[in-house]
Each structure stands twice: as C-alpha cells, then as structure tokens.
Amino acid sequence: GAAGGGSVAAMVASGAAPLFAASLEQALPNLHMYVHLNPSLALVAEQLQLKRLLPLALDRAIREIVAPVVERSVTIACMTTRELVLKDFAMEPDETRMRKAAHLMVCSLAGSLALVTCKEPLRVSIMTQLRQALLQLSGAGAEQIVEQAVQVSTADNLDLGCALIEKAATDKALRDVDEALAPLYAVRRKSREAGQAYYDMSVYAQGRYPSSLPEVLRPKPGHLQPNQQRVYEDFARLPRTPPTQPPPPPMPY
Hints:
GO biological process, one term: negative regulation of translation
GO molecular function: molecular adaptor activity
Protein name: CCR4-NOT transcription complex subunit 1 domain-containing protein
Radius of gyration: 23 Å
Pfam family, one: DUF3819
Number of strands: 0
Region (Disordered): 214-253
Strand content: under 5%
C-alpha cells in the first residue's frame, strides 16, 4: 500500500514513484495499483468489492476538489514567488540561477498550500463517495460494516490522494512561474549573448523599494550572497506533512 508520509517525496519513497512521474490525468487511471486495502477488512473486502470501488471513490473525490485547490494554491505561490524573485534577483545576470530559485520557492509554497487546503475536503469527499458506492452495492442491513470500511479505507488512503493533489499543484506552479518570468529570463540571456553586463535600472527607480528596507535586503549587482541563496534552497528542505493532532484524552466514565 502507499499510505503515510503526506508529501510527494514520502510517497515516492514508499514505492509509488511511477504514479508521481505522470501528470494527474495519467496517474488517476492507475490508482488501483497504489490504494491500500487494510488487512483488518479482509473478511468483508470481497463482499463489498472494495478492491474495485475504493480506487473509483478516490478518483472521484480527487477530481471533485482538485481544480479549485490547485488554482488557489498556485495563484498565491506564483504571485509571492514572482515578487520576491524580482527583487532579490534584480541584478542577477544568470537566468538559470533565477529560474532555479523561483522553482524551489514556488514548488514548496504551492505544494504546502495545496496539502493544507485539500486534506479535510478530500477526507470528506472520499468518505461520501465510498459510502455511497458501498451502500448501493450492499443494500440495507450492512450499514455498520460499510461504515467501518469507509472510515478505515479513507484514513489509509488520504495521504495518497493529498500527495497527488500536491503534485498537480507543483506541476502547474512550475509552468506558471516560468511563464510569468519568461521575459526576465529572455532579457538576461540576450544581454549575455550580446556580451553586455546585465543591470535592471528600474530597481533604482524612486519608490520602487521603501527607504526603510535594510541594506542587506537591497538588490546589489552580481550573484546573491550564499546566505541569501540559502533562503531559496531551504524551501526544498521544509517538512511538508501538516503536524498531526495528538489524540484526545479518554473520556472519564
């Protein structure tokens, strides 16, 4: 199974790598290879056709929420990344350094936002889709068995669904940030090909940056200092799994 982890990196490490090499549209038809069927449901799994219905429910749940989650996460991540990269790399002549920093930041932001935003709606949607499918098949009298299967299967496969939505967000974020920064990449490339030093004179425009901005944060000619570059590299090292809540204390009797 492919449960646990809560980030694309963790899911890949768990053996689901082929699933994450593809786009979401390519990955969804292969969900049946990666969903986790809990051994505790072995006695009822065949009766409920869980192996067939669980991937379908997960597919429908992901499709139901992915578009608004990805759109919102990517929009925020791209706007934030563009503004910071524009300032920090205003005097950077090498577009590959600029692009790498933008990619590190936008992937981390978009993925983290998508993960936090999607978890609860996805949980609710998986449960709704799976419950509906199982009840249609099993009919009256099986509500208790169905509910156990729904609760356990949702808990086991929520991270897989979240990781796929996170991957969809990071894929779109990379495309969108490159599109937004393409003119800036191009002007640097042209300067270099023409043998000219690159300077963005607009950084000196009055009012572009507040006069109170500390000297260390102001754009300077050439590459970023290593400690400034590390800010972008550290985005790749941020933990992506939201902190799990400790279980509530037992109720006194």
